[in-house]
Design brief:
The protein is mainly β and 119 residues long. Helix content is 0%, strand content 52%. The protein contains no helices and eleven strands. The strands form two sheets. Strands 2, 4, 5, 6, 9, 10 and 11 form a seven-stranded mixed beta sheet that branches. Strands 1-3-8-7 form a four-stranded antiparallel beta sheet, with no helix packed on it. Strand 7 and strand 8 form a beta hairpin. The N and C termini lie far apart (39 Å).
Length: 119
């Protein structure tokens, strides 16, 4: 299983932007479907975005569509989440995750990075 480490979180004002990174090691990164998830205080973990191994196809939750962009650089074993027009309700711990197929559970998870959006 690949090991994942997120970075790039922080405190930002509403309307601002952040870019999260997730570095992978210990596996063939280009084989993995990658996803971003988040958990807000007192809430369940929720899906944010996903990307296919080649990067040719992406998917987003309705709450972030049009504001967030997932991308990957297989040469750098890294997946990114560009977050624009941030809102206070985007405040959460953000996690990246990987799986080998287009469906089913994500098998590896990072430790998470905190994103806080102030109003």
């Amino acid at each position: 299983q690949v090991q994942l480490v997120e970075s790039g979180g922080g405190l930002v004002q509403a309307g601002g932007s952040l870019r999260l990174s997730c570095a992978a090691s210990g596996g063939t990164f280009s084989r993995y479907f990658m996803g971003w998830f988040r958990r807000a205080p007192g809430k369940e973990r929720e899906f944010v975005a996903t990307i296919t191994p080649s990067g040719s196809s992406t998917g987003y939750s309705d709450s972030v569509k049009g504001r967030f962009t997932i991308s990957r650089d297989n040469a750098k074993n890294t997946v990114y989440l560009q977050m624009n027009s941030l809102k206070p309700e985007d405040t959460a711990v953000y996690y990246c995750a990987s799986r080998l197929g287009p469906a089913g559970n994500f098998g590896s998870w990072g430790q998470g990075t905190q994103v806080t959006v102030s109003s």
